[in-house]
């Protein structure tokens, strides 16, 4: 009996030791002990990085005393949790030189670009969490973008302005595994995209609030971009931005096709989008393709012009398959479903003017021709169900290509009230089931190879005058200040 008790005790002690080693005994590293000052004025990049490096050596958590910590790019390492508690703000420097230029992918092509304010770059098992704030203080970068674009656009260089006006993202997760972000974090005023997950796997984003329209409307301030990554979960996000809110990406044109990395096995759920270009977006960077994506329990409000958006261009290529979007609630969202395979031509199609002889290498990458047979994206086997929309202007704006129709879309349980039915062009084998459509005008149908199940009063033969009118400005193209 004594032997058994001793044996049990030894096992219990060992189990407790293992548990403590893995959780309770993780050491805290207070950034102020490494010289960080939360006065909002002192540049703390080096001090915060010292704390992170020390935590990486032993495996631990970097913490902060309440305050505002001005910083340039910092890099969270393997085994480290960056804990930003309530009352703590990491404030981004407004000097571009405080963000080192590094290899990355940006807007669909691989190039060198300023690092984000907070980076998980080629690391494993890291976390960024807490109820504090990461603030990009991005207006200076927004203003520089608008200034450059104002000079570029008259020269036919709209496509180059986003790449030449280098602006830091707020958080980048690049080529990393097993990363967690959330816990109530407030992410605000990003200089460019807010949270970019690229070439990464097993990523969880749970509980972030994103506010980029404070003080001004930040251009291209996407919310969460999932880019050529796999096994990603995004949930409990609350988003107010000035571009795509929850966006799936997979590379642009020839460079995206060269890389050929898809975005797969993604779940996006239980989130609200207050202001954005769209609620859930696929594209426009579609080159690597999308597979096994599910989005559900998403609410979009009046400041979101499109609830569900697919966008590509005839130089992108790529595919989308087994995409499932369901249980959306759209309140005063003008367009319920938009699919545009010729999106924003002045941005999507890069052509270097003959008179320009000296230009950066990535201009050549962007302008490399893609044959049309390789350039059209193929979306098929898409299921959309349980969509509740009130106060919409248009139900459908769907434009495919005759040589690559949008195929095998299933739409079930739609409950839509809209002033106009809109149109569905170049679709193949679309099926509507239990479609409760209260429309001011019917849906226009043309060049389709089977659209079944729409109530007779909700559909009519199409009378389109022009496909995908490139003069129609999208939300992203509108100049905001």
Automatic annotation (TrEMBL):
Compositionally biased region (Basic and acidic residues): 466-481
Keyword Zinc: no
Residues of the signal peptide: 1-26
Segments for region (Disordered): 454-481
UniProt GO MF annotations: polygalacturonase activity
InterPro entries: GH28_Enzymes, Glyco_hydro_28, PbH1, Pectin_lyas_fold, Pectin_lyase_fold/virulence
Cited Pfam families: Glyco_hydro_28
The keyword ATP-binding belongs to this UniProt entry's keyword annotation: no
Swiss-Prot/TrEMBL keywords: Glycosidase, Hydrolase, Signal
One Gene Ontology biological process: carbohydrate metabolic process
SUPFAM superfamilies per the UniProt record, alphabetical: Pectin lyase-like
Family assignment from sequence similarity: Belongs to the glycosyl hydrolase 28 family.
Record-given protein name: Glycoside hydrolase family 28 protein
């Amino acid at each position: 009996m004594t032997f058994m008790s001793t044996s049990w005790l030894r096992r219990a002690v060992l189990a407790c030791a293992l548990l403590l080693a893995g959780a309770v005994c993780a050491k805290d590293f207070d950034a102020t002990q490494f010289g960080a000052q939360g006065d909002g004025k002192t540049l703390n990049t080096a001090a915060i990085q010292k704390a992170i490096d020390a935590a990486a050596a032993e495996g631990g958590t970097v913490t902060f005393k309440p305050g505002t910590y001005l910083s340039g790019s910092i890099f969270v390492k393997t085994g480290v949790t960056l804990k930003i508690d309530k009352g703590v703000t990491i404030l981004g420097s407004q000097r571009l030189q405080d963000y080192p230029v590094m290899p990355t992918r940006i807007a669909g092509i691989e190039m060198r670009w300023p690092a984000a304010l907070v980076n998980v770059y080629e690391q494993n098992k890291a976390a960024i969490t807490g109820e504090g704030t990461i603030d990009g203080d991005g207006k200076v970068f927004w203003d520089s973008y608008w200034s450059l674009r104002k000079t570029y656009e008259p020269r036919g260089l709209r496509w180059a302005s986003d790449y030449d006006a280098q602006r830091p993202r707020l958080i980048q997760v690049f080529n990393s595994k097993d990363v967690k972000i959330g816990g109530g974090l407030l992410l605000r005023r990003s200089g460019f995209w807010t949270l970019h997950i690229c070439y990464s796997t097993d990523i969880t984003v749970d509980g972030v609030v994103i506010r980029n329209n404070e003080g001004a409307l930040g251009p291209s301030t996407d919310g969460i971009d999932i880019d050529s990554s796999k096994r990603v979960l995004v949930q409990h996000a609350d988003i107010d931005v000035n571009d795509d809110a929850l966006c799936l990406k997979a590379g642009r044109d020839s460079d995206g096709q060269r890389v050929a990395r898809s975005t797969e096995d993604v779940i996006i759920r239980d989130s609200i989008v207050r202001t954005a270009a769209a609620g859930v977006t696929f594209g426009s960077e579609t080159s690597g393709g999308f597979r096994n994506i599910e989005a559900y329990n998403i609410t979009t409000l009046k400041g979101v012009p499109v609830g569900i958006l697919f966008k590509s261009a005839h130089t992108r290529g790529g595919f989308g398959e087994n995409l499932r979007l369901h249980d959306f609630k759209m309140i005063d969202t003008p367009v319920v479903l938009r699919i545009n395979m010729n999106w924003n031509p002045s941005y999507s199609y890069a052509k270097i003017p003959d008179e320009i002889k000296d230009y950066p290498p990535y201009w050549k990458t962007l302008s490399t021709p893609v044959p049309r047979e390789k350039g059209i994206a193929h979306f098929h086997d898409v299921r959309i169900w349980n969509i509740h929309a009130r106060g919409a202007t248009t139900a459908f704006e769907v434009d495919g290509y005759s040589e690559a129709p949008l195929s095998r879309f299933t739409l079930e349980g739609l409950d839509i009230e809209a002033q106009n039915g809109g149109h569905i062009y170049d679709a193949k084998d679309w099926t509507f089931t239990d479609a409760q459509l209260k429309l001011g005008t019917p849906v226009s149908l043309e060049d389709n190879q089977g659209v079944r199940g729409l109530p007779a009063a909700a559909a009519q033969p199409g009378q389109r005058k022009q496909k995908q009118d490139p003069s129609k400005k999208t939300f992203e193209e509108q100049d905001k200040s």
